[in-house]
Amino acid sequence: MNNDPIVFQLNAAKDKPQSYRKTKKKNKNVCPFCDVETLTDIYKRQGDMIWLHNKYPTLRDTIQTVLIESHDHNGDISTYTREHNRKLMKFALSCFETMNDSNDYRSVLWYKNFGPHSGGSLSHPHMQIVGFKHENGYKYIQPDNFEGESLFKSKNVEVNIAKHPVQGYTELNINLLNKNDLNLWADWIQSGSKYMLNIMYDGRCDSYNLFFYPRKDGGICAKFITRFEAPPYFVGYKLSQVNDGIALDKEARRFRKFFDNGSKLE
Fold first, then answer.
1. Neighbour count for residue 96 (Cβ, 10 Å)
2. What is the CA radius of gyration of the chain?
3. Comparing 30-132 with 143-261, is the CATH topology the same?
């Protein structure tokens, strides 16, 4: 398998607003997503959720889009009302499917950055949906990346702690097996964000990535990955690491109990 890296266009990123980096340039830290009246190239909107073209195309041979989740600059999946989060997941899925079903791209990637260590540039809650014209963005992803220590399963949704993580060590997989219960899927995703930021690692995690992968059976896997410093085995060799079975089982039981208790923080 050839390693064909996607090309980052540094010149396109030089004027990009930043939330996590101090700058002396005037107005550089002003949040563009809060200034809704000046937004352009909007594809679709529903309430305060807005899907639009990304005006800073930093990746070559792609169409980059942004999905603004809420008008709340400090919001997150973990803090939204249950109703808003359910609407968000349905809206985001419909936007992803619009691009993915267009046949204009070799692959379409959908993901979210949260927190200062997530690799994102803006703190205002948003997702990204990116169409790659030539690149298969899923070439390193395998079906077993979505499998693991199962803690919940219904006809429509299955949740597990990954036994074959993409990076490691503890990844939460929330699998939508079919689209008959998007609300339950959204509820598990919201619980996962709360659990990852507040319970897992005793609240030491302040950043995560949430990736959405189309499954070969027609479903979608929503995968939470904690963001700390990347392990050297992954950085240097693309070797992921996973916790032992005892730790995975403990995490699965804790996450299931957290969800059953209404995802309430004590």
1. 21
2. 18
3. yes
Q: By three-state DSSP, how is residue 37 classified? A: helix
Residue 204: partners with Cβ closer than 8 Å, 6 or more residues away: none
**CA 23-28-34 angle, 5° bins:** 135
CA distance 36 to 53: 14
Ramachandran bin of 44, using left for φ above 0, alpha for ψ from -120 to 50, beta for the remaining angles = beta
pLDDT, one tens digit per residue, over 91-105 is: 999 999 999 999 999
* Domain 143-261 grouped into CATH 3.30.428: yes
Selection from 49-58, 88-97, 164-173, 232-241 with the highest mean pLDDT: 88-97
Give, in order, the Cα–Cα distances in Å from 209 to each of 9, 120, 189. Answer: 22, 9, 12
| DSSP letter for each residue of 124-179 | S-EEEEEEESS--TTTT--GGGG-EEEEEE-SSEEEEEESS-SS-S-EEEEEE-ST
70, two tokens: 């809420």
The helix (run of H) or strand (run of E) holding residue 114 is strand 107-114
**Token pair recorded at residue 54:** 């990304």
Q: How long, in residues, is the chain?
A: 266
Amino acid at 86: R
Topology given in CATH for the domain delimited by 30-132:
HIT family, subunit A (3.30.428)
Q: What residue spans of the chain are helical by DSSP H? A: 10-13, 82-100, 182-198, 232-237, 245-260
Confidence of residue 18 (pLDDT cuts 50, 70, 90): low
- Domain limits of the chain? 30-132, 143-261
